[in-house]
Amino acid sequence: MTLLAIEDLAKTYDKVTALTGINLSVEAGEFVTLLGPSGSGKTTLLMSLAGFTTPSKGTIRLDGKDITHLDPEDRDFGFVFQGYALFPHLSVANNIAFSLKVRKWEKARIDARVAEMLSLVGLDNLAGRKPRELSGGQQQRVAIARALAFGPRILLLDEPLSALDRMLRETMQKELKRLHRETGVTFVYVTHDQEEAIAMSDRIAVFNHGRIVEIGPPRDLYKKPATHFVAGFLGENNFLSGHRADDDETMVEAFGTRFSAPLQPRERPGDVLTIWVRPEHIRLGPAPGDGIGFRATVVENSFVGAVERILLRTSTGEQMVATLRSEAHSEYKPGQVVECRIDPAAIGVLPSE
Ligand SMILES: Nc1ncnc2c1ncn2[C@@H]1O[C@H](COP(=O)(O)OP(=O)(O)OP(=O)(O)O)[C@@H](O)[C@H]1O
Ligand SMILES: [Mg+2]
After folding, report:
1. Of the candidates 347, 335, 346, 19, which has an alpha carbon nearest to the alpha carbon of residue 208?
2. Which residue, of 31, 119, 221, 331, is most buried by count of CB atoms within 10 Å of its CB?
3. Among residues 207, 232, 257, which one ends one of the domains?
4. Are residues 39 and 160 located together in one domain of the fold?
């Protein structure tokens, strides 16, 4: 069931087009992430949903009802914005109670709800503290509890974890997922961190230059990106140049070998193509097996913890990175020529840009 529908939304400032042609439907209970580089329009869309920014064009519907020009307080959206600080002079409990008092809830109902929210975010013992007496992670929990307290239909979150260190960020990611499950509230989440987006989302909308480039579940976008931008933005990737073989319409020639690959009918013999392959899909060593075989020279071998990264140079002079699980201790040395294999299913072909 579609809860939120964004139709042909655009926002222009004097000279800047911040958003253009935005279409996005969000199902009730979904966790949708807006992912994209800095300046791609993520915050502008979130602010338009919250009602703090007026779109130049287009419609926002909640349950089919046009809310494009409704005041923020009439939308029943909760928000956790980066830099949207807690009230410093209010205790944790009063920060959470704030939106309930504004909505004129009765005292007993407010007390019960605050206790429920404190327990939901695991801060039962800290109700009386002031924000400055809390760690960054605890402050962020209060901000989330405050945003959820009045029971919003949708929670809007703009980079809520970006100020936290890596460990805490990962803990809070799990917390947010749990809150999403337990409350059933629809989440629209903004991040520029692709790993965070992959780990948390039901669907990701990838932004670039004010447009949604692709929308889909993380797995689909990672495995079958339709665009060069998404293939490069979501996870590490190698891009190599190739072309359609002159003598066989199903064959591609690239990195010193040839192989059959899914080609679009409009690609003609000799057409230049971009081939992509993820570092984890390049296998090294003489082990026999099927797949696309080719030779490359080791440029560099670096140990980075769980994996070893081998930088290779192909016979066509291009570089590609292969990652190997480092328990398979590798003896690859710079200058060494190695046999490489790629499962054809792991190869992507895009028209050259
Ligand atoms: N009030 C404003 N006036 C003029 N231009 C603005 C305004 N707000 C945003 N912009 C511009 O709109 C574009 C989109 O900005 P937005 O804040 O939505 O990006 P973002 O994707 O959230 O980036 P980040 O990841 O850095 O937060 C940028 O080019 C920005 O400079
Ligand atoms: Mg932003």
Report:
1. 19
2. 221
3. 232
4. yes
Q: Which two tokens stand for residue 235?
A: 């996870």
Q: What is the CATH number of the domain that holds 219?
A: 3.40.50.300
- pLDDT by residue (tens digit) across 38-95? 999 999 999 999 999 999 999 999 999 999 999 998 998 999 987 668 999 999 999 9
Residues 256 and 209 in one domain: no
Please tell me the distance between residue 72's alpha carbon and the centre of ligand 2 in angstroms: 19
Rounded distance between C-alpha atoms, residue 236 and residue 252, angstroms = 23
Q: What is the mean pLDDT of residues 188-212?
A: 96
**What tens digit of pLDDT does each residue of 290-343 get?**
789 999 999 999 888 888 899 999 999 999 999 988 666 567 889 999 999 999
Which token pair is 259? 């192989």
16 lines ligand 1 (CB under 6 A): yes
Considering only CA atoms, which residue is closest to atom 31 of ligand 1?
Answer: 39
Atom of ligand 1 nearest to the CA of 45: 18
Shared-domain flag, residues 176 and 224: yes
Mutate to test the pocket of ligand 1, among 34, 42, 192, 196 (most ligand atoms within 8 A of CB): 42
Q: What is the pTM of this model?
A: 0.91
Domain hosting residue 307, numbered range: 236-351
Which residues are CB-neighbours of 195 under 8 A, at least 6 positions away?
none
User: 93 CA to middle of ligand 1, Å?
Assistant: 33
Ligand 1 nearest-atom number relative to CA 37: 25
Q: What is the pLDDT of residue 57?
A: 96
